[in-house]
Amino acid sequence: MNEAVKRNLLGLDAQALGRFFEALGEKPFRARQVLRWIHQQSESDFARMSDLSKALRDKLAETACIVAPAIVGDTPAEDGTRKWLVKVDGANAVESVFIPETARATLCVSSQAGCVLDCSFCATGKQGFNRNLTAAEIVGQLWSANKILGVERKTERIISNVVFMGMGEPMLNLDHVIPALRLMLDDNAYGLSRRRVTVSTSGVIPGIDRLRDECPVALAVSLHAPNDRLRDELVPVNRKYPLSALIAACNRYLEKAPRDFITFEYVMLEGVNDTEAHAREAAALARRVRCKYNLIPFNPFAGSGYKRSSAERIRRFAEILQRAGVTVTTRKTRGDDIAAACGQLAGDVADRTRRSARRVPIKEVHA
Ligand code: SAH
Ligand code: SF4
Fold this sequence. Notes:
Layout: E1 7-8, H1 14-23, H2 29-40, H3 54-63, E2 64-65, E3 70-76, E4 82-87, E5 93-100, E6 105-108, E7 112-114, H4 123-127, E8 129-132, H5 135-153, E9 161-164, H6 174-185, E10 197-201, H7 205-214, E11 218-222, H8 228-234, H9 243-254, E12 262-268, H10 276-285, E13 291-297, H11 311-323, E14 328-330, H12 349-355
Parallel strand pairs: 1-2, 6-9, 9-10, 10-11, 11-12, 12-13, 13-14
Antiparallel strand pairs: 3-4, 4-5, 5-6, 7-8
Helix pairs in contact: 1-2, 5-6, 7-9, 10-11
The structure holds S-adenosyl-L-homocysteine and iron/sulfur cluster.
S-adenosyl-L-homocysteine binds at residues 115, 119, 121-122, 165, 169, 200-202, 222, 265, 267, 296, 298-299, 342-343.
């Protein structure tokens, strides 16, 4: 069979894989075995799946494949953060970022090539929208990261947390994000806890409701402004889904969420959303929904027109929230020397050319 028409099993969740085996006339438990091979052993060759019969292995090789998008760039930062450039087709590449910490290791994944929502401070938004990633391309980022790290460190399962904070708006691609999430949570695949998988959204309310019903995981909402007037400007999707409706959606989400709070992300833009009055408004919002604030120092990129708030302003903003009884953390900026920090991900050709001088030699890692 032509490679192009083979079914890629990488993005199929347990149910879809079960249906695939049923259609082949095989027992459903085969799906479980194959899930483990693919996602726990990082195996992409059916011939090595030793607990399947030779006949089944041959049949699978004939009709199916296990293909992750190629990693075409691998850039380490000073602080241990590492950015992978993931080529999803001839015209598009996305980025995933590995962030090791003492007690956990997080992979930040992309869900779309580009983004249609055009937040004023975001490099991905400035690039425009190219296309949705498939479930295989989303979970493939985790698969490849595990495979690369597993080979290098000779240990398995390094990644303990996944955040959908790379390129794209996950709530506008739930048809593919949900199967990828199910695989991340499945004990026969990655077995991550719902509390350790976070979807971040700019506030697409129908998506928040659908995720609540179909696959609730930890939720982060990119708030960035405490009132509609300012939020309309910074996060244009607010014109369609204003703050009061967003807060109501967050409260509905909490009924099913694995954590008892929503994380509000708040990018600190000098002179734009970082005054004491904004902090007091942000504290007032926190009385309407159980939440924690995560302040993100703005990560600049060429032509953004914004500046990062000073450390002193960020400290003062956090203090006002804390005094009002709101939990607040300030995100440590990681990987900014390799443009891997929040909002700096672009992954387009122009972007690669601009930074090529700082990039380590590109290794073709065929995952
Ligand atoms: N589309 C989703 C997820 C991807 S963006 C969302 O908007 O939530 C992940 C986070 O990075 C969001 O909170 C986003 O607002 C933030 N971000 C975007 N550009 C940034 C920048 N230049 N500096 C710091 N954070 C930024
Ligand atoms: Fe899209 Fe999120 Fe960037 Fe806004 S911040 S443009 S929603 S990726």
